[in-house]
Amino acid sequence: MNKLPEIFNKFRTEIDDEMKSIINAGNLPLYDMLKYHMGWIDERGNSGNFNKGKFFRATLCMLAFISTDGSNYREVLPAAASIELIHNFSLIHDDIQDNDTQRRHRPTLWYLWGKAQAINAGTAMKVLANLAVLKLQNNMVSYRKQIEVLRILNESCLKMLEGQYLDISFEDKSDVNPDDYITMIEKKTASLIEGAILIGAVLNLDHKDIKPFKIFGNYLGIAFQIRDDILGIWGSEDKTGKPQASDIRKKKKSYPIIFALKQSPPKVKKDLQKIYKCKKINENYVKKILSYLDFVGAKDFCEEKCSYYYNLAINEIKNLPISKDYIDSYMEISRFLLIRDF
After folding, report:
1. Burial class (CB in 10 A: 0-12, 13-18, 19+), 266
2. DSSP label of 103
3. Residue partners of 117: CB distance under 8 A and separation at least 6
4. Does the residue 241 lie in any domain?
5. Which CATH number characterizes residue 109's domain?
């Protein structure tokens, strides 16, 4: 599926403008690095309209706000921008940790400016995300609500970092339990998706009324990451911006690999573990791993699991205290995440 749901386009320009107003406040070359990462300029500082990502989390934040009777959606723009900035902070640091040289069809920040300065840039993005929340006061949002947004934002970020820690720790383990992997992605991926929805909802609702959004976001986030894991091995480079089977080349123990290690006969499992201990996985090893994944039906298993969490998410929609006018938007976003190819 190449087309984003229409709701993604509804607020895209204004979210982008809000982030620009936050980042453009700085005048050091450090901020040019952030602008490059966000797709506003090239590496020489020339303006352009480069790939900016899907704005998925920010859009969910906006949707949760307007669907719970948010009369003026512009009130929530600083919060939506803060979520997107947190997400991009994580991408900058992830690229460093994974040694990824491409992001959104362009060279990554660390590849152009070095890891030390990319760490600075990512950390600056994180701080700017927190400062963005304080702009809610300009929209007459109460201090109590601002504190609640900051709490959700930072708790979500902390859980995301816990998940990243677990993900990296799995690289040194020869046998990761699939259930442990689900726990990891609940933290690494689902937490920020969940947080985005909670922030949009809590700006209109009391904290006690937002639990269904938390459950929905959790299921949606797990489905999102499993789909990402599928694309990380079988996705097209033209669509994802990364080489096919990139997760294998990076020796990532994603869901398909963990399933294969669990389900393979002893001889195959031993060979998989041996390959993953190699300093580098060459093309012959990539082909061999792909054949092992095919042998145990890893792709089908992951697609079934993705569908399972997708169904849990859409079943939770009926419990959301939202206007009926927006049910289709929640359904459309959920469906997109299940079948997306980028």
Report:
1. exposed
2. E
3. 30, 33, 110
4. yes
5. 1.10.600.10
246 CB contacts (<8 Å, ≥6 apart)? 100, 232, 240
Using a CB cutoff of 8 Å and minimum separation of 24, what contacts does 124-127 make?
124/26, 124/30, 124/31, 124/34, 125/34, 125/37, 125/85, 125/86, 125/88, 125/89, 125/92, 126/85, 126/86, 126/89, 126/157
Residue 185 has pLDDT above 80, yes or no: yes
Domain with 205, as residue range(s), is: 7-339
For helices 56-66 and 211-234, the axis angle rounded to 10 degrees is: 160
pLDDT number for residue 238: 85
The average pLDDT across 133-152 equals 96
**Residue-averaged pLDDT of the chain:** 95
pLDDT at residue 49, as a whole number: 85
Nearest to 10 by CA among 83, 104, 73: 73
Asked if residue 1 is part of any domain, the answer here is: no
Burial class (CB in 10 A: 0-12, 13-18, 19+), 235: buried
Question: What average pLDDT does range 240-254 have in this prediction?
Answer: 89
Q: How many domains does the chain have?
A: 1
With CA atoms as reference, report the closest residue to 66 among 209, 205, 208: 205
- The predicted model scores a pTM of 0.94
Residue type, 84: E
Instruction: Check if the beta carbon of residue 121 is closer than 8 Å to that of residue 33.
Output: yes
User: Is residue 2 in a domain?
Assistant: no
